[in-house]
Amino acid sequence: MSSIHHIAVLVGSLRKDSLNRKTALAASSLAPKSLLLEIVEIGALPHYNIDLEEGATPPEAWGAFREQIRSAQGVLFVTPEFNRSVPGALKNAIDVGSRPYGQSAWAGKPCGVISVSPGALGAFGANHHLRQSFVFLDMPAMQQPEAYIGNAAGLFDEQGNLTNPATRDFLAKYMQSFAQWVERHV
Q1: Residue 146 three-state SS
Q2: What three-state secondary structure class fits 176?
Q3: pLDDT of 99-154, one tens digit each?
Q4: pLDDT at residue 1 tops 60
Q5: Which are the contacts of 84, defined by CB distance < 8 A and separation ≥ 6?
Q6: Helix, strand, or coil here: 93?
Q7: What gap in Å lies between CA 36 and CA 124, rounded to an integer?
Q8: Would the pTM of this model clear 0.90, i.e. be above it?
Q9: What CATH number labels 5-185?
């Protein structure tokens, strides 16, 4: 891997002290030098409404978001699970990026998913629901290794630093695999 690939990171949790944001930052710090990861904020995106797209000027935030995704060479999703599914803010971001129909910013972008939960299941449901969207979005999703990080509340110190050595090793290996996945698909 000789070139650097820009990766958009979408964090599904909007909480200030989000375990998912902490995990995304830890993954970024553990990524190989071939990846440049940047969190793309989704919390201020207006809800997708086709009426705002057709016959009007779409919200500026949509255009800026779509351009951030288009300019990335891959996408890493880091998400919690809400009601056994994807959080609404993340689903909205997916919808905004996929429109107007036929002009999806997601198409062809290699992607990966890390799901994070304070519970034991590691947001398994959200991880797999998200993967269903990738099929329609034409995003090649990394299948292995899978990343379900459970009991995440005990993995970070008060400053948000990842303190669990096993999780640190796992994330480093995951990011190495993700770098190889991106390289293979760009």
Answers
A1: coil
A2: helix
A3: 999 999 999 999 999 999 999 888 999 999 999 999 999 999 999 999 999 999 99
A4: no
A5: 125, 126, 129
A6: helix
A7: 27
A8: yes
A9: 3.40.50.360
